Structure formats: C-alpha cells, structure tokens
Amino acid sequence: MATTLGFIGLGVMGESMCRNLARKSKAAVVGFDGRGEPLAALARDGVTAAASARDVADRADFIFLCLPGEREVRAVALGPDGLATAMRRGQTLVDMSTTPVALARELGHAFAGLGVDFADAPVARTAQAARDGTLSIMVGADGAVFERLRSYLACMGTEITHCGPVGAGQAVKLMNNMVVAQTVVALAEAMAVARASGAVDPRVLFETLAKGSADSFVLRNHGMKSLLPDAHPTQGAFPTSYIIKDLSYALALAESAGLTLEGATTTGRLMERTAAAGYRHHYYTAVSRVIAREGERMPEYIPSPRQWVREQVELYEGSGGTQGTTLRDTGLPVIIVTHTGKKTGAIRKTPLMRVKDGANYVLVGSMGGAPTNPVWVYNLRERPDVEIRDHTAVQPMRVREVSDEAERARLWKLAVAAFPPYEEYQGKTSRRIPVFVAEPRA
Q1: Which of 225, 302, 363, 393 has its CA 20 to 30 A from that of 79?
Q2: Could you say which architecture CATH assigns to the domain 172-295?
C-alpha cells in the first residue's frame, strides 16, 4: 500500500522542507497551513492541500509538523480538534518545530497511549539550507522509529543525528541555538569595540578572526553576511521573537536541572531589548544595533544602599527572573523597576509590588509610610523611561504620575487589593503617597 506523508506548517522553513519531501520521497504528500499562498506554490510540486490538521491525520501515515513554537504545537497536537483526536494506531507524528523538552516528552507519552509513534526532530541551519535540503536534523525517538523516518528526513537534510530518546532532539537544538545566539552577541560586541575605538576596521577584524581559533560557522555566516553589512531582514530570516522564545526554552531546561545560566540570561535580556527597540520581526542579528547604541553611553549601575534591596535585586536579576520574585516573607509577587538617576544618570534597580492594570503596572511610592518619598519617585518624575522585569519577561515602559482623582482612586484600590499594607502606610504619613502608571513604550 502506498505511503502518504502529511506536512503541517508551511512557513519560512516548512514550505521548503515540504517541497523537498514531495520532490524526493516519491510518496504522496498532503499539506496544511492557515495561509493559502504556500499551498498554492506547493501544488506545483504535487502537494495536495488539506482542509485542516484533522484532514491531514485522516489521510497521512506520517505527519510532520513545522510550527512557530510551543503554543502552536500544543494546539495542533492536543487541542480540541487536534491530532490526538484523529490519529490512529500505526501512524507516526514527527515534530520538527523547536519546542521545550518537556512538551516533547508530554507529546511522546500522549501519543504512545494512542498507539502512535512520536519523534521530535527539530532542524538547524538557515532558510537557504531548507531550500537546498541541507538542514541538520536532530532526532529524539526510539531507535526503530528513527530508522523508519531516516529516509524521509534525508529528503530535507544532509546531517541526520539520532540524539537519543524522545526529547533529546529538542535538547540538542535548544543548546545549539543558545550557543549560536551567545556567539552572535560576542561578535556584535567585538564589532562595536572595533568601530567605537577606531583601532581596527571591523571587516579586517572579522576576516582575521576567521583565520584563527575564533573562526566559526556563526562568524562566517551571521557575522560576515549580516553583522558586518548591518543587514537584518524581516523576510526569510530567523526573527528576534523566535530567538527569545528558544532562549526561554533553553533557560527553562536549565532551571529544571537546577542550573543558572548567566551568559544565556544576559543574551536573552539583550534580545528582549532588541525586540523592544523595534526589531522584533528582524533577523536577530539586529542585536548589534542595540549593543552599539547602548555602548555609546555605558551608564554606571549603583546598587541600593539597603542590603535587603540589593539581595532581592541580585537574586531576581541573577536568576533571570526565576528566583527572588516575591517580597521577603510575604510570598507576594514583586517586579524589578530599572530606572535612571535624576542627577547622575546612573542605573538604579528597585523591587516594587507587582500591581497590574491590564498591560500596565501600578507603581506606589509608599516607602513603608516614611515622611519622604523614595528616591525612585524623584527619578521617575525626571526620567520617565524605565525597564520592568516581571519574572522572566523584561519590557521597556514609560511612566506617568497619576493626577486625575478618579483614575488615582481606581488604581489605589487595585494597589491595596494586591498589597493591603498600603492603607496602613498612608495612615502613617502626612504626605500623599504618589501613584504612577507604567505603560508599554510604543
């Protein structure tokens, strides 16, 4: 009986992968995507369009997924009308997306219960490699399942590695992307130093590095082709939003193993600032622009003189937002507000109670009912641009002091609900405790 292959997710990588599968496998291929354009293009290669993911499950023996991330994979595989409701014993599901290791293991367990074989097989290399069929594919699967898949995977890649059981492929891919992202940052920093100091031409720097022990695939591709010419496209490249996602998955895996990765955490913060600077949809090498811009000012960071504040900030920031997220003995959540000194321009970091109003944060200058305002209040009045860390997420915000009485009353009520001692603090002082609202920067 003839084999039918299904492919779900026909984006920058998926469309080319599906095309190579159709051209080289000699099997019938049915594809599905929410957009009609890639399906129309693939029809010329003999790919039949399916009406839905369930339709693919009804028609295919092997189903390949290539989706943006965890949310999409979870919806397609385990959602109300997902593949788990339609796949049959004897079928095989192959997830070629990049997702958390925990999700790969969850899918493996869920589909094993249905008699469906599962493999995680994320891919590495560029969109051009996807077009050329020269991807590196890292597979987590039972040995027998891997052998059944190998010939189909070889239609899309030249390096097919069996990394271990389900989840191992994702683990290798996440470590790959973590190393590549940190290397991109290192190269961007080296280029920024070369340009700012005037000591050496950046092209000479990169060409010379390529002749020595600092040579790498990342230098010759990300460095020479994107960082050096300052070319960070929005089409056909791996965007900043995707590398942020992959770094978060890598950090989650490390956290589950009891590890804190300072380099990857710092790289993640830089990528978040790159997205906030307007480069969310650009090739993530745009981080070089943020590094160059921030390097022009290099403000000093001044820790708080209060020991408990210093310790809270160090734990919160040092763990990448996975520890120190509650106020001492209360168990109530806090955020870290990074602000700029009114007079010195120095960077300051202050833990404040986490009070949300939709996408905004409410900041209350209580200082335990002290007779004077905390220093951060004066800083925000003068320099309203801040950065707020809420667990692992970091977002640039702009604050404004609330003067409208009705708005202040509403926000004060939210604040007291989140942290009841605010009422007590107001009763201790004759000053009116200031209330600010932090809103996302456009």
Answers
A1: 393
A2: Orthogonal Bundle (1.10)
